[in-house]
Amino acid sequence: MLNRRLFVGASGILSAALMALRPGEKAHAAQPKTFDVEPRGTQGRLERLPTLDVDSRVDFTTGLRRYRTDVLEPAARTRFNALLQANGLDPKTNVAPQQFIKLVEDETVIGLEGRVRIDSQRMAQRLFKEAFERNQDRYIAEMEAYDKSGPGKLELNPGLVLPDYTRHEIHMQPGGYVGSAFAGALYHYGTNAFYEAGKTMNYQDEHHAQLASQVPPPQDGKLNRILDIGCGIGQLTIALKERHPNIEVWGIDVAAPMIRYGHMRAVDLGVDVNFAQRLAEDTSFPDNHFDAVTSYILHHEVPAEASRKIVAEAFRVLRPGGVYFPIDFYTGNRRPPDTAYGNFQEWKDHRWNNEVWRIEYRQMDFAGALRTAGFTVNEDGPAAWYNKANIIAVKPA
Fold first, then answer.
1. Rounded to whole angstroms, how far apart are CA atoms 364 and 13?
2. What pLDDT sits at residue 8?
């Protein structure tokens, strides 16, 4: 286990760095407000946090995360590679974690980078949790009022038996995706901060709009229904409907708090999209029902066994000629080469960020699972997210 100790003076170094790292990036162009104004108003499509104090504290933690990305991570990478070389290991090769953990566990800069990564995320999660719980009566009443509102519909299933894997608090999110009434809000604001720290802005759902633009239609051009499986709070679901306003779009997820929040946002935005609490492994839709199915960062957050079942279900609900476009870490054939430091980062994500199945997903033959399900697989599809190429799986006509 790594000793992630903040050494004396680190807080001063980090605080000084923050002053130069917040160059007004939230000054996004105003967008038409097609929804009710919230107590502190909105920033384009995004409702402001409950208080300016929370906003300011989140701004600090995001700056801290950016400092980790821009300064600490490159320094940790350099030190890591030097340590491996000094011990006869080639950092450019696929060195397994058990070969280097002991070498790096007492290294200050490596430990500091890891500590800042985790603690800044925990601080942000705590801020979001406290902010929404402090105003819980208003927020819960708001969600309840939206549950039966339209456009679009929300289908909840209180009797749904949740898979065991849902109990994990992915990303260290308090309560996970199913254990807090505010899971949707925690995820939304938490991932906004994550994206900004990584220099990918998503306050106006622009990241998901870009992803939606990459989802390919079937070769015959017929696109009447799209399904987003494991949709979370439905940002991609909404983006798909906005891109294709005349087709039927569904988003399903096992987590009721996530789709309740997604439905509330869709109503605010005036987007006629449907959400349902269903299993990705057993969607209950008819055979051959959809023209396209997609998912975003779903497969690395479930066990490989569940992932294979989800792939089989996507095949079942697609009509012949339909397309499955799973967006996740490196699903295409142009992934970067495996390196020791890349393995270290994935191991840390698994060990400290509670990405329980991240390594299992990496070791899975995802393209092989698609072929086993019956798909014809193209591993050189349009780029999406981290990928230089994304898999396109087609159900044979």
1. 41
2. 32
Q: Each residue of 180-234: pLDDT tens digit?
A: 999 999 999 999 988 887 778 888 999 999 999 999 999 999 999 999 999 999 9
Pairing type for strands 318-327 and 390-394 reads antiparallel
SS3 state at 267 = helix
**For a pLDDT cut of 90, what percent of the chain falls above it?**
73
Let me know the angle formed at the C-alpha of 29 by 23 and 30, rounded to the nearest 5 degrees: 125
Q: Which of 18-32, 138-152, 331-345, 369-383 has the lowest mean pLDDT?
A: 18-32
- Per-residue exposure over 366-375, b if at least 16 CB sit within 10 Å of its own CB, e if not: bbebbeebeb
Tokens of 385: 């997210």
In this structure, the dihedral spanned by the alpha carbons of residues 251, 194, 302 and 390, taken in order and rounded to 10 degrees, is 70
Name the residue with tokens 């299992």: 360
Q: What is the reported pLDDT for 9?
A: 38
d(CA 224, CA 291): 6
- pLDDT at site 197: 77
3-state secondary structure 131-174: HHHHCHHHHHHHHHHHCCCCCCCEECCCCCCCCHHHHCCHHHCC
Question: For residues 192 and 202, what is the distance between their CA atoms, to the nearest angstrom?
Answer: 6
CATH superfamily for 205-394 is Vaccinia Virus protein VP39 (3.40.50.150)
Q: Domain locations in the chain?
A: 10-152, 205-394
Task: Please name the residue ranges forming H helices in the chain.
Answer: 10-18, 52-67, 73-86, 97-104, 108-134, 136-146, 183-197, 206-214, 235-243, 256-269, 304-317, 340-352, 358-363, 366-373
Smallest Cα–Cα separation from 204: which of 43, 65, 54?
43
Q: Which residues, other chains included, contact 351 with Cβ-Cβ below 8 Å and sequence gap of 6+?
A: none
Rg of the chain (C-alpha set): 21
